[in-house]
Write a structure and sequence with these properties.
With 450 residues, this protein is mainly alpha-helical. Helices cover 76% and strands 1% of the residues. A two-stranded antiparallel sheet has the order 1-2. Strand 1 and strand 2 form a beta hairpin. The N terminus is likely disordered. It binds phenylalanine. Phenylalanine binds next to helix 1, helix 2, helix 10 and helix 14.
């Protein structure tokens, strides 16, 4: 049965919709990427900017994608096609499919690192590591050839299996139990981290803004991270919105997804920075920050290896609910628009994403693969998060704000309740004017136009 055809499936409840969309949003973006970006971009000022973007652009855009999805009940490309037939407005739909594929290629590499840490901690290899040992272990592992490829392959195979068999629902049921588990574990880690001797400078670094640390590049990084973390700008939320019942409030759903995702990211920072300062780990250490800091924390905990294994396992599952949504976006396009079979599409495009991820997997030391001074993995991440996703978001906002009829947009937004007409007007203004302007200005600033 094809998901998006006639008897289209729907979330059974609004809670189901929130959890599924939050499953896509919460992942490596919150726990791996957010802390290292904060560290690389000067700390608290970046955090504040990020929060402002979530409120003014992110949550309104989740709502926007929901409106497009629920109004058309189609995949992103089909949705734009239906609303503006025969025009260039399919571009944001297509660019979303491309972005989903490219993100999946490197996402699976990093998720592979997480899987390998789950197994390694089970075997006791993380036990008693000091920060230097943790750093050495990480560098040696990601700089290898076969190990990173193996874990990348394993993670991609899991993603493909779930999407091909169409058993996402099973995973979502599980993650209803497992994700609160991850949340509780993160809270335990926050407490451990905050009570480490010497952790206080880390709290100040994380919470006391120094705006002079912000550059045009870090403003773009905050914007890109907001898009990446909320799964925005590539039609993922259009797809999820297309499954939301017309009886359910879109604004409540969008708000809750934004809130959950942001809370997890903020808590992850509260784990990493106090501990990093306590252990003398450089906060700007880059993509390895979390993989070095966490084992050092676990080494300072009773039952540390048990907690480490549990944590990395739950994180891998959080990553899986995100990678499923990435592959699903690609698959839904070929299934709906090109009449491909679901199984074949998942295997073919998952396989291609694995191949496309090989240079990313090897770019961490095995081979010297840099693009514009970034490792291949970081370059694909940069291209998607900082360029393709914000561009997709910009076009979607312009489409809903200027191309669709205002009455239709507002009627769909209000359908299901949760919002007064006044609030809907504010949202519409944010989408039509503020979001496109802000994204445009940040782009212009980052390429040095000012
Ligand atoms: N939001 C996911 C995360 O933070 C990544 C993602 C991006 C998933 C875009 C889907 C679409 O880990």
């Amino acid at each position: 049965m094809e998901l998006a055809q006639a008897a289209r499936s729907q979330w059974k409840s609004r809670l189901g919709a929130v959890l599924a969309a939050a499953g896509s949003a919460v992942g490596l973006g919150n726990i791996w990427k957010f802390p290292y970006l904060v560290g690389a971009n000067g700390g608290a000022a970046f955090v504040l900017l990020y929060l402002a973007f979530v409120l003014l652009i992110g949550i309104p855009l989740i709502m926007t994608e929901f409106v497009v999805g629920r109004k058309t009940t189609r995949n992103p490309v089909g949705a734009f096609r239906e609303l503006a037939p025969g025009t260039a407005w399919v571009i944001p739909g297509i660019s979303g499919v491309v972005a989903g594929f490219l993100i999946l290629s490197f996402y699976s590499v990093v998720a592979g690192w997480v899987l390998r840490y789950a197994v390694t901690s089970l075997l006791g290899a993380l036990s008693g590591l000091n920060p230097e040992g943790a750093a050495a272990l990480f560098t040696e592992f990601i700089g290898g050839t076969w190990a990173p490829l193996f874990w990348h392959l394993l993670f991609m195979a899991l993603t493909v299996y779930i999407v091909a068999a169409g058993v996402q629902e099973g995973i979502e049921k599980w993650s209803k139990i497992l994700m609160p588990g991850l949340f509780i574990l993160v809270i335990i880690l926050v407490i451990r981290s905050l009570t480490l001797p010497g952790s206080h400078p880390g709290i100040a670094y994380y919470l006391q803004p120094d705006f002079s640390a912000l550059t045009g590049k870090s403003v773009l990084a905050a914007l890109g991270q907001m898009f990446f973390s909320l799964s925005l700008g590539m039609g993922c939320m259009i797809t999820y919105g297309s499954y939301i019942s017309r009886q359910d409030s879109l604004v409540k759903t969008a708000g809750q997804v934004g809130l959950i995702d942001t809370l997890v990211a903020l808590l992850a920072g509260l784990v990493i920075f106090p501990a990093a300062f306590a252990f003398g780990i450089e906060p700007g250490a880059g993509p390895g920050l979390v993989f070095i800091t966490l084992p050092a924390i676990f080494a300072q905990m009773p039952l540390g290896q048990f907690f480490a294994c549990l944590f990395f396992l739950l994180l891998a599952i959080a990553a899986l609910t995100s990678s499923i949504s990435l592959l699903e976006t690609v698959v839904a396009y070929f299934v709906d628009e090109k009449d491909w079979g679901r199984r074949q599409t998942a295997v073919v495009w998952g396989g291609l994403a694995f191949l496309a991820g090989i240079p990313s997997a090897l770019s961490q030391g095995a081979v010297n693969l840099t693009v514009f001074g970034l490792s291949f993995l970081d370059a694909v991440d940069y291209l998607t998060s900082n360029i393709l996703l914000p561009l997709g978001g910009l076009l979607t906002a312009l489409f809903v704000g200027w191309r669709m009829r205002q009455e239709d947009v507002l009627a769909e937004a209000l359908q299901g309740g949760g919002m007064t007409t006044g609030m809907a007007q504010v949202w519409y203004f944010l989408v039509r004017t503020i979001a496109p302007l802000a994204i445009g200005l940040i782009f212009a600033n980052a390429i040095g136009l000012f």
